[in-house]
Amino acid sequence: MASTDITRHILSVLVQDVDGIISRVSGMFTRRAFNLVSLVSAKTETDGINRITVVVDADELNIEQITKQLNKLIPVLKVVRLDDETTIARAIMLVKVSADSTNRPQIVDAASIFRARVVDVAPDSVVIEATGTPGKLRALLDVMEPFGIRELIQSGQIALNRGPKTMAPAKI
After folding, report:
1. What is the largest CA-CA distance in the chain?
2. Radius of gyration of the CA atoms of the chain, in A
3. Chain centre to alpha carbon of residue 29
4. 54 - beta bridge partners?
5. Which of 6, 44, 77, 147 has the most CB atoms within 10 Å of its CB?
């Protein structure tokens, strides 16, 4: 019997770079009412092939169904479910924090603790760029919150397997 515990899963999907592929993939989630957390698409090292990283909250039965449905889409070349132990996953965040001459050094120091960097300085704010796991990015926001967060944007996660294993596409 499959578990009904909903957990976060990362799927790496290799697709042909064709018009409408993102719409087709996201539409598959919409039609089946799966909880899509994020979807990021980008070019790969191979011309004509893109990698879509999908983060989804699902139980074991639904993640198997999602994988099967993705594999049925014609421009999809390969679907791999990534696991926590063998995966490097990161997101990027830009956050604008209120800053003046009195607290700016504290903000810069706090950002450096998280290996984040200041990418813009204005008289009343700084913009910080950070990459990392969702937990690391949340912790940075918790530290910046007392200074006053003015704006925030965060990407979805991208992910790769650790070590020599690659996700080589099937022949087109």
Report:
1. 60
2. 19
3. 17
4. 11, 39
5. 77
Contact 18, 50 (CB under 8 A): no
For residues 62 and 104, the answer to whether their CB atoms sit within 8 Å is no
Integer Cα distance of 80 and 102 in angstroms = 49
pLDDT (tens digit, 9 = 90+) per residue, 39-87?
Answer: 999 999 999 999 999 999 999 999 999 999 999 998 999 999 998 888 9
CA atoms of 166 and 59, how far apart (whole Å): 26
Task: State whether 105 and 53 are in the same domain.
Answer: no
Range of the domain at 36: 7-82
Q: Which two tokens stand for residue 113?
A: 């603790």
Angle of helix 21-31 relative to helix 60-72, nearest 10 degrees? 140
CA pair distance 45, 54, nearest whole angstrom: 19
| CA dist., res. 82 & res. 84, Å (int) | 7
**Is 171 inside a domain boundary?**
no
Q: Which residue in this structure is represented by tokens 């697709």?
A: 15
> Which among 72, 75, 65, 67 is positioned nearest to 21, based on CA atoms?
75
Same domain, 11 and 75: yes
